[in-house]
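Narrative of accomplishments. A recurring question from our advisory board has been how the design workflow behaves on a single, concrete structure rather than in aggregate. To address it, we present the structure tokens for one chain from the evaluation set, followed by the sequence designed for it. No filtering or post-editing was applied between the two.
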């Protein structure tokens, strides 16, 4: 997932107050807890305990925190990029060992799917899906963490190591509460979220049918290094943008830079296209269904006095509705061809196939998530996002088929100002793993409650 928009205002959530409410205060700089000889699962809840079962889950989750920190930091030391994550996959399989789960690994990708069969009676068999992504990013970590990446030019800069650990935590919590679980839970550990469509590939391998029937709901959390520690935010409807990459090549006629009238220079024409794209976005698309088009790559030529044959540029395009995306694709093609035609050139404009759809939260599921956070951790820990965020997510593929919701979880370390802290994807990004017990409790509680609602 791309960096969080810093302009997002999280009113009513104070970093200090939220930090104080956290159950465990392990900081990134602190030494890790020593590994126990054997990891004990949390104690089962006494029958009838807790009206919402929230408090016991939160307490059990707090007891898991040292284990989750160890797992997260081990993952952080050995980040892997893309769809093949053998070490991360192995760590997850090992962490799930001993739990009453049906565990399967992917064929084409390094995924792990766990299915927990609940023991409580239910009128019909139902399931809930929980997702955690496992992949890292191709950049060199530049912070001073004592558990920083040991792999060159690879870093868990988007916090997916926390997601993986929180999902393991949820699996442990729900395993301990299995007899209260009125259905099945699918744990989806996915590779390749960062632009590799890992979710789409897991769907193709059947993750949505892993429990034997389609889940009634799906949930995911994503940490943010620029959000107040321990704060949860989500939104009804569009939560994250759709992401497309537009690749444009303008074909002109090269020649000597001193005699441009004997050539057909593609550079000014490609430049004209870049500015025309901006005009198209602001003049032809509603501000209430926005489009972002950023040209982040422009390549042409080899020398100042040589006119090249071609100019090439690429843009990232973010939209928040299928209608806007479809219209952008149609209009951009017409616009670029029109400009090229008028200059006696040709143009190739293609959208790469690795696009991500808009991540759309089901309104009812988003409200259910908000209520679950409030029940577990207090209403002051939750806020509604006024606007969608600009990053994109392939959890959109799951939410296109299963109603559900994704929420952001603030993980800005104490001592850093969320307004200025390095964002997700920065080589300096830091995520405070003190939030993991609370995140694991929310995931587990969502499944537990949703199967009886
Ligand atoms: Zn990311
Ligand atoms: Zn991410």
């Amino acid at each position: 997932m791309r960096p969080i928009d810093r302009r997002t205002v999280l009113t009513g959530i104070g970093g200090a107050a939220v930090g104080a409410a956290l159950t465990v205060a392990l900081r990134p700089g602190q030494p890790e807890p020593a590994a126990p000889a054997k990891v004990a699962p949390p104690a089962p809840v006494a029958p009838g305990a807790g009206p919402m079962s929230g408090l016991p889950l939160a307490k059990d989750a707090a007891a898991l925190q040292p284990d989750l920190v160890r797992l997260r930091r081990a993952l952080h030391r050995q980040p892997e990029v893309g769809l093949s994550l053998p070490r991360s996959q192995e760590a997850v399989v090992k962490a799930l060992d001993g739990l009453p789960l049906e565990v399967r690994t992917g064929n084409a990708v390094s995924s792990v799917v766990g299915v927990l069969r609940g023991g409580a009676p239910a009128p019909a068999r139902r399931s809930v899906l929980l997702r955690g992504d496992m992949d890292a990013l191709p950049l060199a970590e530049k912070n001073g963490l004592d558990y920083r990446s040991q792999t060159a030019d690879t870093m868990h800069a988007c916090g997916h190591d926390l997601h993986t650990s929180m999902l393991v935590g949820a699996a442990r919590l729900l395993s301990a509460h299995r007899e209260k679980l009125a259905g099945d839970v699918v744990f989806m550990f996915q590779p390749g979220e960062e632009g590799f469509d890992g979710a789409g590939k897991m769907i193709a391998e059947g993750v949505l049918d892993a429990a034997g029937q389609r889940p009634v709901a799906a949930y995911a959390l994503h940490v943010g290094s620029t959000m107040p520690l321990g704060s949860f935010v989500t939104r009804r409807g569009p939560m994250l943008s759709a992401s497309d990459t537009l690749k444009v090549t303008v074909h002109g006629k090269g020649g000597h830079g001193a005699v441009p009238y004997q050539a057909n220079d593609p550079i000014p024409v490609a430049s004209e296209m870049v500015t025309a794209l901006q005009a198209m976005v602001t003049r032809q698309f509603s501000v209430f269904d926005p489009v972002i088009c950023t040209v982040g790559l422009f390549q042409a030529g080899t020398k100042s006095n040589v006119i090249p044959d071609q100019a090439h540029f690429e843009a990232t395009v973010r939209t928040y509705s299928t209608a806007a995306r479809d219209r952008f694709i149609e209009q951009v093609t017409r616009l670029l061809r029109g400009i090229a035609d008028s200059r006696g050139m040709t143009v190739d404009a293609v959208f790469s196939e690795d696009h991500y759809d808009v991540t759309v939260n089901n309104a009812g599921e988003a409200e259910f998530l908000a209520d679950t956070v409030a029940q577990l951790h207090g209403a002051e820990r939750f806020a509604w996002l006024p606007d969608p965020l600009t990053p994109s997510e392939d959890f959109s593929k799951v939410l296109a088929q299963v109603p559900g919701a994704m929420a952001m979880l603030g993980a800005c370390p104490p001592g850093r100002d969320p307004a200025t802290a390095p964002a997700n994807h920065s080589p300096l990004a830091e995520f405070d793993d003190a939030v993991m017990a609370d995140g694991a409790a929310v995931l587990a509680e969502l499944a537990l409650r949703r199967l009886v609602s």
